[in-house]
Fold this protein.
Amino acid sequence: MTAAPKKIVVCGGNGFLGSRICKSAVSRGWTVTSISRSGEPSWSAVSSSPDAPSWAKKVSWQKADILKPATYKPLLHDADAVVHSMGILLEADYKGVLTGKESIWGGLNRAFSSSKMGGSGDLGSRKEGEEVKPGERDGQFTYELMNRDSAIILAQEAYAHKVKSFVYISAAAGAPVLPQRYITSKRDAESTIASSLPQLRNIFFRPGFLYDSSRKFTLPIAFFGAAGNMVNSAVGGRLTWLAGAAVEKPLKADLVAEAVVEAIEDEGVKGVVLTSQIESLANKAWRRGML
């Protein structure tokens, strides 16, 4: 007996990885909704062509604000899974420096500060549908707000709408060039969601650097990352504490997208999903497609 097609909602579905998750889900005949501030992707930013691919017509590209659940609550109705595929790699302090509103030293000090505000209020006592505002005085989108609090809010709303599975795209590790708060905000999101919403089948993907030929600049980074991973493996992983994601095996974005969709399909998958399991899930998806 053939299982009924699933319905998934991808928050950040118009991004580099999110759009590929949408594509993979569409290929299985699933009902797919993307949520983002801008709606449909700027295709030249996420693919090798400025034109929308044929599969994009099968995705419902919706505009919504993840910090304002009222803008997307109806879209969660009857969803089987919700995916959080958004976040920030760099905070926006550099904008103040470039415009002269803040000194270089001030910008760096803010970027690498040990702590920043996330969303306003206590998320633990937040009511269903309640909006959350940036906590920083200038409304800055911080790691704590976008990597941590937005994921917690989305998971809470998913649970309130009886969604069974929640997928959070985390990261394998931090990197020497990034503030420590980048990775701690992601780990905090994982632990909070796992402990406060155990009723959800929570899946936390931790890929390393993602690359694709449509983004030429990612190819040399992936090359050096692969070389670093080989060296790190040769010394028994002793470089991980120092280099973090810089020595984690880089993965093709399409491979990770296939693995995400396969994880949603396979109800035995839950908890943290590391690189080796990501590759295993992608291989399983490939074999399924060959049948």
